[in-house]
Design brief:
Helix content is 53%, strand content 14%. Strands 5-4-6-7 form a four-stranded parallel beta sheet, with helices on both faces. A three-stranded antiparallel beta sheet has the order 1-3-2. 19% of the residues are buried. With 224 residues, it is of the alpha/beta class. The longest helix is centred in the last third of the chain and has 51 residues, at 169-219. Strand 4 (65-72), helix 4 (78-95) and strand 5 form a beta-alpha-beta unit.
Length: 224
């Protein structure tokens, strides 16, 4: 089965992906080195399969995995997690995409220590993943999606974003902010306890020092 991708690239985006200029793409198109596709209005575009072929990846015998990745902030939103999985599976069935693996994660999109997310990135770097499907960019990561997308492309992996309008990323952003405040408030509380302990130790040390000085004046000896 050939690799299926819904993402098409404009010449500018494709040139950045390959690390060449748009003029170079135009020259390659004229010389037949890398032919551009054409829209009905005669605009040029390129596909991800062309990128793989340019990189020397055999798309007809690409046995790497197609993975569904779904995430919610907490286990209280398990229903939302299953909605993401169901939506993506239905999309894949409609497009004839075979899903090899489904990864479900709990944790903030700001957290880079998510267990399944890190496992997924490891498998990308091991050249095991062909396509990652998510319902929204922020399901994959809250900030820096473009950077992670380009990094995955370096390993010939594409992230396919299939928007599900039933989801509410705004609500999860609020949850992420609450999570951050909770973490920092916990650290602040810990710092306050630590500060209190230090102040108590300093007070005890001062009392001991004052006691030694009093004894020194009483017997004429110096106590260290």
């Amino acid at each position: 089965m050939n690799t299926f991708h819904i993402t098409n690239y404009k010449p500018k985006d494709f040139s950045e992906l390959l690390g060449v200029s748009v003029k170079t793409l135009q020259r390659w198109d004229r010389e037949g080195i890398l032919k551009a596709n054409r829209t009905p209005t005669d605009r040029r575009y390129y596909t991800y399969d062309q990128y793989l072929q340019f990189k020397g990846v055999n798309t007809e015998h690409d046995n790497r995995q197609t993975v569904i990745y779904a995430r919610v902030s907490t286990r209280n939103h398990k229903d939302d997690l299953q909605n993401q999985v169901t939506f993506l599976r239905q999309f894949c069935n409609a497009k004839g995409i075979i899903v090899d693996q489904c990864m479900e994660d709990y944790g903030s999109g700001l957290n880079y220590n998510r267990k399944r997310w890190n496992q997924l990135l490891d498998e990308v770097m091991e050249q095991k993943i062909k396509t990652i499907l998510v319902t929204h960019k922020d399901r994959f990561v809250r900030f820096g999606f473009d950077w992670f997308e380009k990094s995955c492309m370096k390993f010939n992996t594409t992230i396919m974003v299939v928007n599900n309008e039933e989801l509410s990323p705004q609500e999860e952003l609020v949850q992420d902010i609450v999570s951050i405040l909770h973490v920092f408030s916990g650290r602040l509380c810990g710092l306050r306890k630590y500060k209190t302990q230090i102040e108590g130790d300093e007070e005890l040390a001062k009392e001991l020092q004052d006691g030694n000085q009093s004894n020194s004046r009483a017997d004429g000896k110096i106590y260290l």
